[in-house]
C-alpha cells in the first residue's frame, strides 16, 4: 500500500509566549558571620560589625560625664548598640578603670548575657571585652565580683570548647589573658571546680588553663 504524502498545509498551533522570570540576587552569608545559639537553633545573620583590637581602642573624652550613659546603653534591646557599648566598656576598662569599677559587676553580667546570644558578632565582642576586663582588673575580679566572675569563667570555658573556630580562638585568647593577669593560686581554686564538670570539653579546657597556670608558677622571673 502506498504511503500518503504529508500535508504541509495543515495549520500549526501557535507557539506560546515564554514567561519572563525575574531573577533576584541574594548575597551569600559567610559561615563565620552567622551566629548559632547553644541549643543549635537556626543561625541568625549579623550586620557588619567591626572587631577592634585592644591596641586600636582610644581613651574616651570626658569619661566622667559618659560613664552613666554607658551603663544605660548596655541594657539596650538593639544588639548593635550593645556591641558598641561593650567596645566603649573596653575603653573604660583600659583607660578609665577607676570609673568603671563601681559598675563592674553590672558590665560583667552584660558580657555573660551577650555570650549566650545567638549572634556571632555579639559573642565575639563580649569575649574581647572579657579579655580587656581581665587585663585591667586582674585579682580585683575575685574580690568584688565573685558571682559574676564565676558565670563569666564558665561561659568562656563553654565557648572555648565549641566547634565554631572563630569563637574557640577568641575564647582561648581570653583564657590566656586570664592566666597572665591573675595570681595563680586563687584562680586555680576556681578552675578546680570544672575539671570534674559533666561536659568533657569543659574539663579539657579547664585542665589546659590549669596547666598554663602551673607553667607560669614554675617559670623563672
Mind explaining what this structure looks like?
With 221 residues, the protein is an all-alpha fold. It has one domain: Alpha Horseshoe (Leucine-rich Repeat Variant). It is 57% helix and 2% strand. It is built from ten helices and two strands, in the order ββαααααααααα. It has a two-stranded antiparallel ribbon with strand order 1-2. It is globular, with a radius of gyration of 28 Å. The N and C termini lie far apart (112 Å). The relative contact order is 0.10. About 11% of the residues have low confidence.
Fill in the keyword field for this structure.
221 residues; mainly alpha; Leucine-rich Repeat Variant; two-stranded antiparallel sheet; 2 strands; 57% helix; globular
Amino acid at each position: 500500500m502506498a504511503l500518503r504524502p504529508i500535508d504541509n498545509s495543515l495549520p500549526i498551533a501557535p507557539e506560546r509566549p515564554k514567561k519572563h522570570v525575574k531573577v533576584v540576587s541574594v548575597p551569600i552569608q559567610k559561615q563565620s558571620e552567622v551566629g548559632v545559639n547553644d541549643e543549635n537553633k537556626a543561625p541568625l545573620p549579623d550586620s557588619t560589625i567591626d572587631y577592634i583590637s585592644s591596641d586600636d581602642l582610644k581613651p574616651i573624652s570626658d569619661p566622667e560625664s559618659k560613664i552613666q550613659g554607658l551603663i544605660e546603653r548596655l541594657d539596650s534591646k538593639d544588639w548593635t548598640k550593645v556591641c558598641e557599648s561593650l567596645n566603649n566598656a573596653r575603653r573604660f576598662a583600659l583607660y578609665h578603670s577607676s570609673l568603671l569599677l563601681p559598675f563592674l559587676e553590672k558590665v560583667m553580667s552584660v558580657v555573660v548575657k551577650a555570650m549566650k546570644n545567638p549572634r556571632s558578632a555579639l559573642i565575639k565582642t563580649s569575649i574581647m571585652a572579657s579579655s580587656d576586663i581581665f587585663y585591667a582588673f586582674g585579682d580585683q575580679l575575685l574580690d568584688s565580683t565573685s558571682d559574676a566572675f564565676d558565670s563569666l569563667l564558665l561561659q568562656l570555658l563553654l565557648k572555648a570548647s565549641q566547634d565554631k573556630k572563630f569563637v574557640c580562638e577568641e575564647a582561648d585568647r581570653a583564657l590566656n589573658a586570664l592566666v597572665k593577669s591573675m595570681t595563680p593560686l586563687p584562680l586555680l581554686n576556681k578552675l578546680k571546680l570544672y575539671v570534674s564538670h559533666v561536659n568533657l570539653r569543659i574539663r579539657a579546657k579547664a585542665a589546659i588553663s590549669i596547666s598554663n597556670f602551673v607553667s607560669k608558677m614554675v617559670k623563672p622571673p
